[in-house]
Amino acid sequence: MSRLGQGIKNAWNAFIRGDPSQQQVIRYGYSTSYRPDRNGLSSKNAKSIVAPILNRIAIDVAAISMEHAQLDDDNRFVEAKDSEFNSCLNLEANIDQTGRAFRQDICMSMLDEGVVAVVPVITKGDPRLTESFKIYSMRVGKVIEWYPKHVKVRIYNEDNGQKQDILLPKYMVAIIENPLYAVMNEHNSTLQRLIRKLNLLDYIDEQSSKNKLDLVIQLPYSLKTESKREAAKSRLNEIEKQLTGSTYGIAYIDSTEHITQLNRPVENNLLAQTDKLTEMLYGQLGITKGVMDGTASEQEMLNYYNRTIEPILSAIADEFIRKFLSKTARSLNQSIVFFRDPFRLVPVEKLADIADKLTRNEIVTGNEIRGKIGFKPSKDPRADELRNKNIAAPKEEQTPQVNDESQDEDENY
Q1: What does the pLDDT look like over 290-339, one tens digit per residue?
Q2: CB 338, CB 66: distance < 8 Å
Q3: pLDDT given at position 231
Q4: pLDDT per residue over 215-255, tens digit each?
């Protein structure tokens, strides 16, 4: 049989899986039209301008790599560990999420709820009985009840496809609290006040956009008696019927009647207050409008990463070290570290100058620079040398060569 025929023989088609009459009925479990494992935002945040802010922060947090690392005696990074826990952080956290999506889920849920629980779902060894266990799968859950030494967590169960409440000891669950809790999640924090003001503003806009004319009709007689008030109500009902019954909304009035229209915007300071609160929130979070629309300067981004992103990453890493690394692993200088790529925000015109300074001062090699800008490593051995290329390499020791003329003179002598 030819190679093509052998390939077709061993091929598999997702839509054709043999004779349907011979297939067994397979029960795949609970099914929904939406993704049940996704942790959505609460309604108060999902329906306001807060959602883009939380999403922006979560994306930037997930963009920074986090590693289960081996450190030296001076707590300097040596290498990333080839461990199951590192695979959860960077490759596959569970059957539904990659490592990056998992880290984004942690940050998004933490900012929304104020505190989040990360539960090791599948492990080698019982975390309730031993500190030495390997983590194969992790998920983000919501803490719904607090106990002195336990927490009840609502977490997605991938076996039955539904979220489930389970009671777990605190020492085996990473409980990560938002370092910006006082600004974002406290009852009277800046963010919560902004949400309430936005809700009021939306309510006023909704009321003003309803199908109302807001008219005042001046009748040609006094309304001090009850009979005149009843006549006024009858006249009002008659005008309403004319407007609703007319194709184009036209009504007639007497020449002695006057109509005053009031459907003009009501002046209030809600919009000014929301603008002020938004500005305060940006300042307290270390965010600017440039960060949100992508026009921030290098100094603004540096301030944003130092004041907003770094505290969140440190909170996540510290809790992972405390709960998921045993005392033995910590004594062997294992840790959870995170790194931000310094070249990601560097413009092209500055890249060559920075690369020259880093290689000239023997900080990085040429191939390390090439990898950062997306080039293939050079096969030249000198590209992996950590030395200043502007200085000539030291000459190797050479055996002294004897001059032939002096040698002849010595022989004649």
Answers
A1: 999 888 988 899 999 999 999 999 999 999 999 999 999 999 999 999 98
A2: yes
A3: 86
A4: 777 888 888 888 888 888 888 888 888 877 878 778 888 88
DSSP 207-273: HHTSS---EEEE-SS---SHHHHHHHHHHHHHHHHHHHHSSS------TT-EEEE--SPPP-SHHHH
Q: How large is the C-alpha radius of gyration of the chain?
A: 35
What are the CA-CA distances from residue 228 to residues 138, 187, 252, 258, 335 (Å)? 76, 53, 20, 17, 86
Is residue 399 pLDDT above 50, yes or no? no
Q: How many CA atoms lie within 13 A of 348 on its CB side?
A: 1
Gap between the Cα atoms of 290 and 306, Å rounded: 16
Instruction: Name the amino acid, one letter, at 220.
Output: P
Per-residue tokens: 214? 């807001």
Task: Tell me 51's DSSP state.
Answer: H
pLDDT at residue 155 is higher than 80: yes
DSSP assignment string, 116-169: EEEEEEEEES-TTT-S--EEEEEEEEEEEEE-SSEEEEEEEETTTTEEEEEEEE
Unique residue bearing structure tokens 């692993």: 329
Output the pTM of the full model: 0.77
Domain positions in the chain are 190-271, 345-393
3 state SS of 348: helix
User: Which residues are 218's β-sheet partners?
Assistant: 258
